[in-house]
Write a sequence for this structure.
């Protein structure tokens, strides 16, 4: 029995000359939308990892989980058993859970969003095996309600960018860490000359003050009393994040308008292009591992 593909009746298969002509004419166009390293599908999802990812939003989730696990493994190095950890700006709770799972520590997550706190509790209730090792509470890193030397380590993923007083946040983080403890943080810094519309688009969409230079950031870190143990430039990630947010906003715009109203899209529409440009050309993104001196 010969197996036939019924879809073949939809149209004739292209001749080799037609395939060649397409690449002759549109090869450079394909490189602009697919990449020029090779003209084939890339391994966006490594084998065995979340193979159900089939959308840009799913790919973004995967990238965030990879980032979380990568940072957790850095922070875990040298932690004591049953370490007490602080997640500054815990978002909707996922990173705190992954941090507890990968380190075996007890994690307290803080956020200034009541809606995020509700999402944190929902996420935690759906997770098994953590017992009482993760908790969440309302908290502001610039005014932490914890005693001195309360935590063995802390991290803050993209939270310090929101702060109106970053030095105050750094001093508070230092205060609640035990001597010899570490703060792992990620932060945006400004690169090159910028124009106001691009800067304003970034600060409005990120709800943040304008990024400072890296020299300003490192100066504030040292003035707060931290010693820099590690610096890693991860700028390519914010550039790709800006591209992804731009594309996904365009793709999801109708759904966004239906859920949040026309006023929200009218506000956001003119910000997306300058935000994308700012992320591409003017934002650097750093991982900093900071140590509190032993004495």
């Amino acid at each position: 029995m010969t197996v036939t593909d019924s879809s073949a009746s939809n149209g004739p298969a292209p001749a080799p000359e037609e395939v060649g002509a397409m690449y002759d004419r549109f090869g450079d166009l394909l490189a602009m939308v697919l990449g020029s390293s090779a003209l084939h599908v890339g391994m966006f999802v490594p084998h065995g990892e979340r193979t159900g990812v089939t959308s840009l939003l799913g790919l973004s989730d995967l990238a965030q989980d990879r980032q979380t696990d990568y940072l957790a493994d850095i922070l875990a190095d040298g932690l004591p058993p049953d370490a007490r950890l602080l997640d500054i700006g815990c978002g909707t709770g996922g990173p705190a859970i992954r941090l507890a799972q990968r380190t075996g520590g007890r994690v307290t997550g803080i956020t200034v969003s009541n809606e995020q706190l509700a999402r944190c509790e929902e996420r935690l209730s759906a997770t098994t095996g953590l017992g009482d090792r993760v908790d969440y509470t309302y908290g502001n890193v610039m005014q932490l309600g914890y005693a001195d030397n309360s935590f063995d380590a802390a991290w803050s993923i993209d939270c310090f960018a929101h702060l109106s007083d970053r030095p105050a946040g750094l001093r508070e983080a230092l205060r609640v860490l035990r001597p010899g403890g570490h703060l792992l943080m990620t932060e945006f810094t400004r690169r090159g000359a910028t124009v106001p519309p691009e800067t304003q688009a970034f600060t409005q969409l990120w709800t943040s003050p304008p990024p400072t230079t890296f020299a300003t950031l490192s100066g504030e870190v040292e003035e707060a009393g931290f010693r820099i143990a590690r610096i890693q430039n991860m700028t390519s990630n914010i550039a790709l994040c800006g591209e992804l947010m731009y594309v996904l906003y365009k793709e999801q715009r109708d759904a966004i308008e239906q859920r949040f109203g026309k006023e929200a899209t009218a506000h956001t529409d003119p910000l997306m292009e300058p935000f994308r440009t700012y992320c591409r050309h003017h934002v650097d993104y750093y991982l900093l591992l900071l140590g509190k001196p032993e004495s």
